[in-house]
Design a protein that fits this description.
The chain is an alpha+beta fold and 95 residues long. The protein contains two helices and five strands. It has one domain. 16% of the residues lie in helices and 32% in strands.
Length: 95
């Protein structure tokens, strides 16, 4: 049996009733980071898995709390990771 690739370990902290454009989902990195890569370092696989599970669709906002507790956005299209953007708090000027 081949060893499995290490994947980010995260929980969903906010999820819409229906995955639809305009909705948002929020996930949080939970580690432990000696055993799992962070969401930031595994963003491609995180997006693929969320699309495959039907939890994220095109047009949804995907936010995540990183390993330091900062809320940022993962941008995506067609089931693929496309980059990072400031989270909602950053856009609004924070608290």
């Amino acid at each position: 049996m081949m060893p499995t690739e290490r994947q980010a370990n995260y929980v969903i902290v906010e999820e819409p009733f229906n995955s639809a454009p305009g909705e948002r989902i929020v996930i949080r990195d939970v580690g432990p980071w000696d055993a799992h890569p962070t969401i930031t370092n595994d963003a491609e696989n995180v997006v693929k898995q969320l699309y495959a599970d039907g939890r994220v669709v095109d047009g949804m906002t995907l936010l995540y709390y990183d390993s330091e507790g900062v809320l940022d956005e993962i941008t995506h299209a067609g089931g693929a990771f496309t980059g990072f953007a400031p989270g909602e708090d950053d856009v609004k000027g924070g608290w």
